[in-house]
Specification:
The chain is an alpha/beta fold and 480 residues long. It contains 16 helices and 18 strands.
C-alpha cells in the first residue's frame, strides 16, 4: 500500500497497513523555519539554503523531500508556483508589512502579530468600495496544474492543497479586529453579515481558480477558520449556526462540486461544541485536535465522532510537553495517543499544530521515531508491546506488566527485517527510561536503525540465537 492509498483508506475509516504520517501537508501541520534547520543539522543533513516559507506570519516552512523521506511522511502540500508573489507593502524600518488584504503585521520575536485592521472603522457603505485581491492577478496559479499532475503521476504522496484564503469568520476578525467583529455579531448584525458574505465570495473566487488547476489531482482540500480558544468557542454554538455555519456549508458544497478531494477544516482550540455542526456543514477532516483545550479529550472525540470525522493531528502536545517534557514522556504520550486514535482508521499522525522554533531537534526526531514504532496496525497483536497494543498475549491488564518486562532480557538478539516486514525500532522503552538514553537516530531509510523485527505467526525467525517457528501471536526478538 503506497502513501496515497494509505491516506484514502484511513479517510474512509478503514485500517490501512499503518497510520499515515504528516509533516508539511498544510501550513498548520508543519514546522517553523528555525526548528526545521535545527532538525536537519541534528540528523547530519545539509542545510536547506532556501527553505520554502509557506506562511510568513508563522514562519512556517514546507520541508524538503529528503526530510519527508527520512520521516516516512505520506502527505505532500502543493507549493504555490513561482508566479505567485506576495503583494505586500514592506515597512523595513518598523519590521512590519501590509499584506494583500491591507492587514498590518509587525514582527514579534519569531513571528508576526496583527497590529492594524483595515475595516476597523468601516461602514456598510465602505464595503462596496474595497478592492479585494484578484485570484487571476499576474497568472497567480500559472503552472500549478502541470506541477500537480507531475506529482500525481510520478510520486505516491497523498497531495494536499489548501489554505488558499482565510475562513469567513476568521477573516472578519482580521479585517475588523477580534473584539470589534465579535461586538458586530451582537450589535450590528447587518454589517456583520455583509462582512461575512464578502469574505465568503472572496474565498469562493480563490477556490474556484485554484481547483480549476489542481482539483483533478488532490486528495485533500484544506481550509481554516479558527473558532476555538483554550477554554471554549469564540462565539456560542447558536451564533455559529446563525452566522457562520450556512457560509461553511456553501463553501464546502462548492469545493465538493469542483473536486473529489476530502474537506479538511483547521480550527484551533476547544471546538467540541461545534463539531456536530462541522459535520453537518460537510467537514470530513478536523485539525489540529488540540486536546490540551477544554472538552477536547481524545477518547471522547474518537468515541463520539470517530465514525464521521478523520482526526488529522493530536499526535503530541506542542504547548507544553514537546518543548518542556522528557523524551520518555513524549514517547509515552505518542504511544497512548496511537492506542486511542488509530483503531478503525480515521487518524493521521502529526503534532498538534506547528512545531515551534524553540523545540530541541532531538525532541522532534523522538516524536517521529516514537510514531514509527507505533504506526503499524499489526503491532496491536505484538507481544513485545510495540505501541502498547492489547492482544491475546497482552490483554488489557496492567498487572502483568512486570512479567512482560521480565521477558525483555538483555540477551535478546535483534534480527534484520525483510523488506516486506514493518520495522518498528527497538521496543524496549523501559530500558531507555532506566538508562536515560535517547532513541536511535534515523538511518536514512524508511526504517529506523538498528532494526528489530516483529514476525508474523508461522514464520521462521531467529530469536535468542535460535531458529523457531512462531505460533499463536506475533513473536519478537525479545521473546525466549
Amino acid at each position: 500500500m503506497n502513501s496515497r492509498e494509505r491516506l484514502l483508506e484511513t479517510l474512509s475509516h478503514r485500517e490501512p497497513d499503518r497510520v499515515p504520517l504528516d509533516l508539511g501537508g498544510t501550513e498548520n501541520t508543519t514546522i517553523s523555519r528555525i526548528a526545521y534547520q535545527n532538525v536537519r543539522s541534528y540528523l547530519g543533513m545539509e542545510e536547506d539554503p532556501s527553505p520554502f516559507v509557506i506562511n510568513r506570519m508563522m514562519d512556517a516552512v514546507f520541508p524538503r523531500d529528503d526530510l519527508l523521506e527520512r520521516f516516512s511522511i505520506d502527505c505532500l502540500g502543493l507549493r504555490p508556483p513561482p508566479t505567485l508573489k506576495a503583494n505586500t507593502r514592506e515597512l523595513p524600518e518598523e519590521q512590519a508589512f501590509y499584506d494583500e488584504l491591507g492587514i498590518r503585521w509587525k514582527k514579534a520575536s519569531y513571528y508576526y502579530d496583527m497590529v492594524e485592521h483595515p475595516l476597523r472603522n468601516a461602514s456598510l457603505e465602505d464595503l462596496a468600495k474595497i478592492r479585494w485581491p484578484d485570484p487571476a492577478r499576474d497568472g497567480r496559479f500559472r503552472g500549478l496544474r502541470q506541477k500537480a499532475r507531475k506529482l500525481y503521476e510520478t510520486t505516491d504522496y497523498a497531495l494536499v492543497a489548501g489554505h488558499i484564503m482565510w475562513g469567513p469568520f476568521e477573516l472578519g476578525c482580521a479585517l475588523r479586529g477580534y473584539e470589534q467583529f465579535c461586538l458586530d455579531l451582537y450589535v450590528d448584525e447587518t454589517l456583520a453579515r455583509a462582512v461575512l458574505e464578502n469574505n465568503l465570495q472572496l474565498a469562493l473566487r480563490f477556490w474556484d481558480a485554484y481547483l480549476a488547476e489542481v482539483g483533478d489531482y488532490i486528495q485533500v482540500a484544506a481550509g481554516g477558520d479558527d473558532l476555538g480558544m483554550q477554554t471554549g468557542t469564540i462565539i456560542s454554538p447558536e451564533m455559529y449556526r446563525s452566522f457562520v455555519k450556512p457560509l461553511h456549508t456553501r463553501l464546502y458544497d462548492f469545493i465538493r462540486s469542483r473536486t473529489k478531494a476530502r474537506i479538511f477544516l483547521h480550527s484551533c482550540g476547544s471546538v467540541y461544541d461545534l463539531i456536530p455542526d462541522f459535520i453537518e456543514a460537510g467537514v470530513e477532516i478536523l485539525s489540529p485536535v488540540q486536546f490540551s483545550a477544554a472538552k477536547m479529550d481524545l477518547a471522547r472525540l474518537k468515541r463520539e465522532f470517530g465514525k464521521d470525522l478523520t482526526f488529522w493531528g493530536g499526535g503530541v502536545d506542542t504547548q507544553h510537553l514537546l518543548p518542556e517534557g522528557s523524551l520518555a514522556e513524549i514517547e509515552d504520550q505518542v504511544s497512548r495517543i496511537f492506542d486511542i486514535m488509530a483503531p478503525g482508521g480515521g487518524f493521521v499522525f502529526v503534532p498538534v499544530h506547528n512545531i515551534q522554533a524553540d523545540v530541541a531537534p532531538e525532541r522532534v526526531v523522538g516524536v517521529y521515531h516514537s510514531a514509527k514504532r507505533n504506526l503499524a496496525y499489526f503491532a496491536r497483536a505484538c507481544r513485545c508491546g510495540v505501541g502498547r497494543r492489547t492482544c491475546s498475549t497482552r490483554r488489557s491488564s496492567r498487572r502483568g506488566s512486570r512479567r512482560r518486562r521480565s521477558a525483555h532480557r538483555p540477551g535478546a538478539t535483534p534480527t534484520r527485517a525483510p523488506a516486506s516486514t514493518f520495522s518498528a525500532g527497538p521496543p524496549h522503552r523501559e530500558r531507555w527510561r532506566r538508562s536515560s538514553r535517547t532513541p536511535p537516530r534515523y538511518s536514512g531509510s524508511r526504517a529506523c536503525a538498528p532494526t528489530w523485527t516483529c514476525t508474523p505467526p508461522g514464520i521462521t525467525a531467529t530469536i535468542g540465537g535460535r531458529s523457531v517457528v512462531t505460533r499463536r501471536s506475533w513473536a519478537c526478538a525479545s521473546e525466549r
